[in-house]
């Protein structure tokens, strides 16, 4: 077989008057091969089949079966044609299915990749796209389990995006992340676009829930729900998700707290994401320049967030302190090492700490997230000090290598046990005590004296 380069050279040399023998010697091929390519009997880059195609008799059957069932597994079809006499391997069979294009196209099952994609206009200030990202393997000291969650919001016009870390994807955490991200983006767009997340809409119908309708009314935005299996409709936030997972989360150090990780993400967005260059009708501009107040024309955010209540479970420390958003709050000393419930209503300046049965046992003024302060009630401090002093003793610790044989009370209890044991089994304990086995080596020497000679 000639390559396309050799075929071009052969035709060029033939036009210059070279004979077929000279071309064959020059290219290192047989004369009959050169003649076939010059006459058009063979095509460069296509190997002539060595024999009849073993798949050809089965083309009709495979085509009809795949018309009947376009989603039939190739392995199942291979089992059928093997019973009908197909003798080649499974990889050869699947290669022939692809080469012959026997499987019909199914539009609903086709992914977005490879489809024609329409150009979607994104006017300034029109749309903010939202999506959750599941982030695996958060640092163990966070206590969040095997996953962390990041709500990413992206302005569709400029491409500016921000995100908020959360321990859960429930609706209160969603509302809190929406409010914080919106303020970080600089304002409200006219439309919020979501996929079919259950905290926003009913996934089957796409109609928003009554609880989230109140959130949308509070912020004065319209809610747009993506059609099912149309991820490219919110491609701006999807790309932001990919960037957040691969460029930020992948290299996040283990020693950071959640609040420090959030600050790290904010710095990444300002120093890396906002400096990207975007092409516009007036030339190229950075994302930060496109996303300013004049460029996006965003509306101001309400002074207070929607009053959703965040409820989380926490374990009180030995000092009767409960950690919440980078600060520690006191509880009565009786709850040290106990599980409590922390409730915080968004927009309020205090939080409640309750027992697992719902009894509120502490209320504290909310500190700034990540400040690292210790908020303690005076009564809790006094009770904790009293409990610690009450439990304190100046007695010396017990010696570990001290000999302490059984005392009179223990010996009396042992005698009672022996008496009860003998009464239950009278046969045991009678007769002389066991003297043990005595081995006298002299007897072995006497027995061996007469065995030193052969008989």
From TrEMBL:
Question: SUPFAM superfamilies of this UniProt entry?
Answer: Ribonuclease H-like
Q: Where is this region: Disordered?
A: 396-436
The entry lists its GO molecular-function terms as: nucleic acid binding
Domain of life, source organism = Bacteria
* Annotated ranges, domain Integrase catalytic: 119-294
Matching Pfam families: Mu-transpos_C_2 (PF22483)
- A Gene Ontology biological process term: DNA integration
What is the designated name of this protein?
Answer: Transposase
Which organism encodes this protein? Actinopolymorpha pittospori
